[in-house]
Specification:
The structure is a single chain. The chain is α/β, with parallel strands linked by helices. The chain has one domain: Flavodoxin domain (Rossmann fold), CATH 3.40.50. It is 42% helix and 16% strand. The protein has a five-stranded parallel beta sheet, with helices on both faces. Helix 1 runs parallel beside helix 6.
Amino acid sequence: MKAILICGSPRTDGNTEILLRKCMETLDARGIESELIRLAGKTIQPCTACGTCARNKDKACAIKTDDFHAVFDKMLEAGIIVLGSPVYFGSATPQLMSLLDRAGYISRFNGNLFDRKLGGPIVVARRAGQNFTYAQLLYWFMIGGMVVPGSTYWNVAFGTKKGDVEQDAEGLETVVNFAENLAWLAGKIGA
């Protein structure tokens, strides 16, 4: 089974990416090939509600002038999808939400393409808003028919400056336990 970890932060090598890499290390150690996809530097337009994906049923979006399809194709290939975002005013980044809105519509109008894939969210906050953002991303997994294992707490960590999350021992442990549960579940379902 292959895992992709999508970093919704517009910054590279920041706290969100540090947590996703921690998750990747754990998955890789359990024999699950993983790949990090950064949205930083990519352009993903928001959904325009044109309805083309509903009419054509071709697993494609009408918007062809951005980086959406390259990321979406990797989402379709993966058995595990992990989403990471910093908190922006109590929600996930606009880049990540543009990806998820478009991917979600295409999936639903084409027979629920993410149904029974594994995954879950990882969120970084400076001080607050993490529960809203975590729930926002979790809702996307739930409506997509995906399977999300738990951990020892919600998959959140705290940090402001680059590298601060490395001081959040409980946050790091929670992400590792989440990744362990993903790998365990993948093994149980024989994927």
